[in-house]
Amino acid sequence: MPLFLEPVFQERIWGGAALKSFNYDIPNDSTGECWAISAHPNGPNIVKNGKYQGETLDEVWRNDQALFGENEERPFPLLTKILDANDKLSVQVHPNDDYAQKHEGEFGKTECWYILDAKEGAEIIYGVNAESQKELIHMIDHKQFDQLFNKVKVQPGEFYYVPAGTVHAIGAGILILETQQSSDTTYRIYDYERTDKNGKQRELHLEQSKDVINLDETSPNTKPKYETIQGHSYTQFVSNSFFTIERWIIDGHLDYSKPYQYCLVSVIDGHGTVRTEQQSYDVEKGTHFILTVEDENIEFNGDMTFVVSHE
């Protein structure tokens, strides 16, 4: 039986109301993040169905490892979000595993973005225009941010891989499906001197940022693999030691074979059903669930687009 999950919403200074387009009952019009598939302590999802109904995903992960084909104790590795950047996010960088475990006590944060929607002219920041560590530190210390940050215009349907150490920011007017390591460690470099509702500027982390920025990360694009499978459009955006990200665009019936012992599934458009064994479940834009070891003979039916991620 798939694990269907109740989303967790996070208010953000840059958030808006666009998550309503996923039929979510968001708490307010400053909702920046939907934590859609999460076992992180800062926002674990509650299971909506079956024998685990009412339990959090981290509880299920800890207490029934066989459901995920696991035989080692470790945190749930991935986190799926939808981000509504009504305003631009801070410019930031995330540490890798070694640095994060030493200084923060959790995973590092390699992530990736699938652009769900973007206003005309919307852009992200990806990478820096510095040739050396010395130049990087000089530009940060002298607040030469206009020259430092590399800007890239984006369009719906594009995919961007953001390894740990990459300076990045989501610009205003962009809606993103983000898959990341299960970490909540962010080092802010620049926040446009904004203040929160209490009139305070958010903390910056310039020394940590100088430590972890990787000057080699300058190109935001991967090389997707495109196939037609059973008459449907399949794309593999990225596959590495952190995660594999795939998109399916289906119209009709798909006999689905899990590519991993368990898979995270997010329906990003349309509606239909997913069937496992003898039970069928209605799904629609905004539905998120996990196919576990127990789910076999999987069928998707409908007119929908969904993104699958796994280790």
UniProtKB/TrEMBL annotation:
UniProtKB keywords: Isomerase, Metal-binding, Zinc
InterPro entries: Carb_Metab_Reg_Kinase/Isom (IPR051804), Man6P_Isoase-1 (IPR001250), Man6P_isomerase_Firm_short (IPR014628), MPI_cupin_dom (IPR049071), PMI_typeI_cat (IPR046457), RmlC-like_jellyroll (IPR014710), RmlC_Cupin_sf (IPR011051)
Domain Phosphomannose isomerase type I catalytic, chain residue ranges per copy: 4-103
Pfam family, one: MPI_cupin_dom
Domain of life: Bacteria
Cofactors, names only: Zn(2+)
Keyword Isomerase part of the UniProt annotation: yes
Enzyme category, top tier: isomerase
Domain Mannose-6-phosphate isomerase cupin: 235-310
SUPFAM superfamilies attached to this UniProt entry: RmlC-like cupins (SSF51182)
Gene3D superfamilies: Jelly Rolls
Reactions catalysed according to its record: D-mannose 6-phosphate = D-fructose 6-phosphate
GO molecular function: mannose-6-phosphate isomerase activity
Known EC number: 5.3.1.8
NCBIfam families: manA (TIGR00218)
Family the UniProt entry places it in: Belongs to the mannose-6-phosphate isomerase type 1 family.
PANTHER family: FRUCTOKINASE, TRANSCRIPTIONAL REPRESSOR MPRA
Annotated protein name in UniProt: Mannose-6-phosphate isomerase
Organism whose genome encodes this protein: Staphylococcus hsinchuensis
Taxonomic lineage from the root: Bacteria, Bacillati, Bacillota, Bacilli, Bacillales
Record gene name: manA
